[in-house]
Structures are given as structure tokens and as C-alpha cells.
Amino acid sequence: MERKTGLGPKGLRWMIWVLILLMVIVIGLSWIFYAESYEFFGEATSYLGGFQTWHEKNPNNLSQRIFTIGFLVIGIYSIFISLSYFLHTKEFRFALLKGILLVVIGFGALGIAIPHDIGTSIVYLHSIGAFMFLSGLAVLNFTLQILRCVTRYNPSCEEKNFDYYIDYSFVVILILAAIFYFLIEVNSVRKSFRILDVFCLENYWIFNELHNQSDA
What we know:
The chain is mostly helical. It has helices at about 10-30, 60-85, 95-110, 125-150, 160-190, 205-215.
């Protein structure tokens, strides 16, 4: 008889919801303790984790520590969840895909934990981490919700009850939320007049190199 994991699909779904909750808490606390006014819809999220505030250059010790420690915890937690999928590939649909996405999210979070204004070449890891985390999280959420809908309902489902509409509503909400977040971050890039990646977590090394060449 095949041994089942103690968590099960429902338990792992809750663990992923905890991951989302951790991210919201970390960003929320970092925002609260940010050492200057922060414009959520106009500034990059990575500003919250900088050693200094973006505009006034105030010391940002508390917010920076919350942001860095928080994303370190998120990274380790994501990799821990991925192991549950890797160790039980026969028990979960698309377990390898989910596990790989969680590893991407985990290492992305570890990269985000590096302050964006650290001032050395390892800032590359911050920008790469931001891309990995955000893209991995978007694909994972979308994949999980689609799989849930496909598993519970077929396209020609005749009995469309309340749960049916709730599940498919979440799929639409996730798509709209991803588009909304992308537009916010692109707007942040436009306002900052800097060379940033599409997720507006800045690559200082490239900017400084271009600036130095223009002064040469």
C-alpha cells in the first residue's frame, strides 16, 4: 500500500497560503516602519529593504531588517515546502512542476533579501531574485488555481454551484492582480528614470557604469 504524506493536498495548499500571508506581513511591517513616506503605487517595493530611504536618504534600519529577515524566512520556507512535493511526486499532480516553482520562489526571495543599495556587484542577485520570486509566484498561483478548477470541474460542468463560481473567480482575480501589479511596477520604472528590470527592482551596477562612461 502506498504511503501517504501527513499533509496531503489540502495541507500543502494551506502552507502556500501561509507563504502569501508571510509576504504580506513582511511588506506591510516594512512599510509601517519605513523611515519616510512611502507611495505604494508609485515606488518600488525594494525601497523598503534599503539601508537608506529612497528620497530623503534617512537611515532605514528597522524597515531594512524586517524586510531582509522576512524574505530570508520566506525563501527558506518556500524551499521547505518544495521538498514535500519532491518527496511525494506520486501523490500530487504536477508535483515536480510545483516543487521547481517553489525552489525558484525560494531562491528569488533569498535574492530579494539583499538590500538594493548594498553598493557592490552582488546587487545583481537582488535584481535576479526579484525576477525569480515574482514570476515564480505568479506562475505557481495561476497553476494551482487552474489545476484546482480542472480537477473539480470539467469545462462542460452542468452543475455550476457557488463553489464553481468562487473557484473560477479566483482565476480571473489572479490574472487581473498580476496585470495590475505589473502596470504599477512599470509606472514605478517610468517615474524613477533609471535602468530597472520589469519588476522595478533596480540594478545599480548597470546604472553606475553608464553614468561613469558619460562622465569619461
